[in-house]
Amino acid sequence: MRFIGITGGVGAGKSEILDYIRKHYSCEIYLADEVAHLVKQPGTKAYGELLSLLGPGVAGSDGQIDRAAMADRIFADPSLLERVNGIIHPAVKEFLLERLALARAAGEADFFFVEAALLIEGGYLALVDEMWYIYADEASRRQRLKASRGYSEEKIARIMSSQLGETQFRESCDIVIDNSGDLADSFRQIDERLAAWKEPERL
Length: 203
Hints:
Blueprint: E1 2-7, H1 14-24, E2 27-31, H2 32-38, H3 45-54, H4 67-76, H5 80-106, E3 111-115, E4 130-135, H6 138-149, H7 153-162, H8 166-172, E5 175-178, H9 183-198
Parallel strand pairs: 1-3, 1-4, 2-3, 4-5
Helix pairs in contact: 1-9, 3-5
């Protein structure tokens, strides 16, 4: 089973790529943002550490950590952000590596995918068999974000400026999937690469 990381800037179309892979391949797929929510559920180690760091007031009446309350605490004391990430990111990585080990032991899936915008910064290059950069030109990304999420130009610019640039993504990743145009072409690129994993001489 191959462990493949999927990364790229906001608006590049990673969700569409993963939807296609999920429907057409024997695989397990994890989104780091969803895992980050799981690892801070009540009763987890990260949950206890976050409450110790931020105070019990960040938990709502249902016991769940209130994202708005946590954001307020970090806004009031920006130095907390690095400490919060120091709790959540290792917990996410531990969760994913446990699931990877279980999937490999089960031997039922051909591929194990993890998606996140911050895989490179998070040290996943040392863990995956291959890192994919889902690329789309900036104009396409801006158009998608306005149409699908209703983002303003200001918000788009702010998010893009906080992420790695195209050169950094390309230099760090093994494979580039160009998702600027027709999805059928993107799917063709995916099919060719995943077929190559089953025929090592094509790699």
